[in-house]
Amino acid sequence: MSLESPDPTVVHTVVVTADDLTSALETNRASGEHAVLRITPPFSGRMRARLHVELDEAYEQTPEPVHIEPRQLVDDSLPAYPRPADTEDELRADPEREYSVERHREYHASAVEQWREQIPDAVTATATVETPTGPTTVDVSLLGNS
Fold first, then answer.
1. How far apart are CA 110 and CA 38, in angstroms?
2. pTM over 0.90
3. How many CB atoms lie within 10 A of CB 107?
4. What are the residues facing 137 on neighbouring strands?
5. d(Cα 130, Cα 141) in Å, to the nearest integer?
């Protein structure tokens, strides 16, 4: 019996690096592009999901890779991505600091870094992944820290 299969529902564990997950989440919140975590066939029990920016192109291979929305791999404890307008408002509201463009840039960069640091703690133990042959529930394994 082969350990590889064309059926994506044989996957029981999805492994993703903290960097790929962070990049995918940030891309989807801060740019006009759409990033996913892609599992490429043939499929087996434990699969690595890698960062992939979706294009408007259909796959020619069968079976097709599986795209996982990065938000599916984190829970609701992950706060919203810091928007520049919000960090500007926070900085302007702080009576201990005087607003400047440079101070805002630094403050915003710090807020984004704090958001990134929270991602590993928000990763779910399991996730339901949509596949061409139906949904499947997988364990989620995170490699490294972002």
1. 29
2. no
3. 20
4. 128
5. 18
Token duo for residue 124: 């779910």
Q: How far, in whole angstroms, is CA 142 from its chain's centroid?
A: 11
CA distance 52 to 129: 16
Which of residues 70 and 56 earns the better pLDDT score?
A: 70
Tokens matching residue 21: 């997950």
3-state DSSP: the chain helix, strand, coil percent, rounded to 5? 35, 25, 40
CB atoms within 10 A of CB 86: 13
* Cross-strand partners of 68: 37
Mean pLDDT, rounded, of the chain: 92
Give the span between the Cα atoms of 112 and 107, in whole angstroms.
9
| Cα 50 from Cα 39, distance rounded (Å) | 7
pLDDT interval class at 23 (50, 70, 90): very high
Residue-wise pLDDT tens digits, 80-128: 999 999 999 999 999 999 999 999 999 999 999 999 999 999 999 999 9
Amino acid (1-letter code) at residue 28: N
